[in-house]
Amino acid sequence: MRLPRLLNRWLLFTAAVFLIALLMENEYYLTLLNFIGIHTLLVVGLNLLMGYAGQISLGHAAFFGLGAYTSGILTVTYGLNPWLAMLAGMIISGVAAFLIGIPALKLRGYYLAMATLGFGVIVYIVFTEAQAWTGGPSGLAGIPALHLAGLSFDTPWKLYLLIWMVVILILILSASIVDSRIGRALRALHDSEAAAESLGVNTQRLKLLIFVWSALYASLAGSLFAHTMNFIAPSSFDIMFSIKLVTMVVVGGMASVWGSLLGAGVLTILPEVLVFFHDFEVVIFGGILMVVMIFLPRGLVRGLLDLKEFRRYKRQGGAFPV
Amino acid sequence: MAVNDISFGVPAGLVKAVIGPNGAGKTTLFNLITGFLAPQRGRILYREQEIQSLPAYAVASLGIARTFQLVQLFDHMTVLENVMVGRHRLSRAGLFSGGLRLPWARREEAAIRDKALEALEFVGLADRAAQPAAVLPLGLKRLLEIARSLASEPSLLLLDEPASGLDRVETERLGEMILTLRDRGITILLVEHDMSLTMEVADDIAVLNYGRLIAEGPPRAIQKHPEVIAAYLGTDWQG
C-alpha cells in the first residue's frame, strides 16, 4: 500500500511537469520555472542538512558558485566537455565541503554556520578578484549550452525539460534517502544525538557526509545555472543568496522534501511579483524568516502538518512536540 | 569527582544491579562505560578489550546498548522507526545504496523492519508501531527505549532506572522482561531505585556511596551488609 501511493505521487508530479512543458509557451514563465528548478536543487540539499542533521550552512551560494565557475571556466577557457566540467565542479565542491566540515563539525553547536559564512565571503572575493580566471566583476561570458545525444539545450523550453528531469530525479533520490537507513540515522540525531550515538551512529561522520552531499547538489545546480544563463558574475553567489536559500528552506519547511519545492517556488516568484519593492527585498526576506521562525519553527509546510497531527493525537490523548 | 576507585566485574549472562543513594555516581558510571564520559584514569574492560577511550558510537558497535534515565526517544519518528534505528550498527546501506534502493539494500531494509517489529512485539508495543514516539505515555516510552536497544542485539544491556515512572503492574512486567532477556543470554547491568524489583531480578549487586564501591555480593548478603544498611537502606530496612 505504501509504495504505490508514493509512486503515484511521483508519477503525478512528473505528469504535471510534462503538462506544463506542453502548455507553456511564454519564455519568461519558462525561465522563471527553470530558476525555481535550480533553486529547488539547492534547497533540497540544504534541507537535508538543516532539517535532518540540524546544521546550518550560510555558504551554500559558494558551492553553487564553485559549480557554476568550474563549469564556466573549464568549458570556456579550456574547451572541456560540459558534462565532465559539471563532474569536476562537484568534485571540487565536495572536497571543499569536506575540508571545511571536518574541523567545524568536530565542535558542537553552530560552528558550521560560522565556518561556511567565512567560506562564502572568501569564495565571493576570489570570484571577484581572480580576474584572469573568472573575468572578475564583469563576469564570464560565452558559456556553451549543454548537449546530449545531438540535442542542444539552448532554449528555455528545452532547458525546462532538462532541469526539471534533474529536479525530479534528485527529489526522488532525496526522499528515498530520508526513508533509508542513513535518513533514519539523520532524523534520529536531530531528535537526540545521545540516543543516536548509543545505537552506534557516528553522528559526527554522518553530519559531515550530509554536508558534503548537500554541497554536491549545490554544485550541480550551479553548473546547470551556468549553462542556462551562458553568463555568470560574482553577484549571483553572494552571502545574500545564501541567506535566501536558508529562507527558502525555512518557508518550505525543515525536514520536508516537498516543502523544498514550495519554498523555492514561493521565494523565487515573490521578488518577481514584488518588483516595485525591489529596494526592500532584504527587509521582506528577513521579515518572512522572522515570522515563520517565531510561529512555525519547523517551517510552513512542516508546521502546518504538525498542527494537523497534533490535533489528531490530542484527541487520542498525549502530547505532541512542535 | 563523581566516581572514584571503583572496581567490579559484570559476569556474563547475569543481571548485575548497581544501587546507591542519589548522587552516588551510578549514572556517571553508566556514562563512563558507554563512552559518554572519558575516565581520567583507570581501565574499563569489555571481553578483554579496553574501551575507556572509545567514543560512544564505537562502544555501542561492540554490542553494548543502554537506556537513559531521562527517556531519549526520537520524538518526530514513529515507534517503528525508532526501533529501526537500533538496527543501525548491524546494517550497511549508505547514501547511494539506500537512496537508490539497490536490491541488497532493499532486502536489508526489509530485514531491519522485521527485526524491529520483533523487538516491538517482545515489549508489547507492536500495535503502536505507526504512531509518533512522542505521543506514548511515559511507561510505554521506557519500553520503547528497551525495544530500541534490543534491536541492536546487544550482548551487554545497561538499564538506567527503567522502572521510574512505571506503575506496579508495569514494573512487574519489566522484571519478567529482564529475566527473559537474561535467559536469552544478554548480560544486564541495572541501575534501579525500586528495591523490590532489584532484589528480585539481580543475581549480584554492587553498592555505591559518594562515588565509592562500599559493598558487592548477592542480594541476600547485601540486605544484611551493615555498611549498606547504614548508608542506603536505612536501619529499619527489612526487605
Plain-language structure description:
The complex is a heterodimer of chains A (322) and B (239). With 322 residues, chain A is mainly α. Chain A has one domain. Chain A has helices spanning 2-23, 27-52, 60-76, 82-106, 111-129, 131-134, 156-178, 181-191, 193-198, 203-229, 239-252, 257-273, 281-295, 300-316; strands at residues 140-141, 146-148, 151-153, 231-232. In chain A, the strands form 2 sheets. Chain A has a two-stranded antiparallel sheet with strand order 1-4. Chain A has a two-stranded antiparallel sheet with strand order 2-3. In chain A, a hairpin with a 2-residue loop joins strand 2 (146-148) and strand 3. The two termini of chain A are 28 Å apart. The mean pLDDT of chain A is 89. By secondary structure, chain B is α/β, with parallel strands linked by helices. The longest helix of chain B has 21 residues, at 103-123. Chain B has helices at 26-33, 56-60, 79-85, 95-99, 103-123, 138-151, 168-183, 195-201, 219-224, 226-233, and strands at residues 15-19, 45-46, 49-50, 64-66, 156-160, 187-191, 204-209, 212-217. Chain B has a domain at 1-63 and 154-239: Rossmann fold. Chain B is globular, with a radius of gyration of 19 Å. Helices cover 41% and strands 14% of the residues of chain B. In chain B, the strands form 2 sheets. Chain B has a 6-stranded mixed β-sheet with strand order 4-5-6-1-7-8, with helices on both faces. In chain B, strand 7 and strand 8 (212-217) form a beta hairpin. Chains A and B meet through helix 7, helix 8, helix 9, helix 10 and helix 14 of A and helix 2, helix 3, helix 4 and helix 5 of B.
The total domain count of chain A is 1
Low-confidence stretches of chain A: none
**CATH topology descriptor of the domain at 1-63 and 154-239 in chain B:** Rossmann fold
Q: So how many helices of chain A?
A: 14
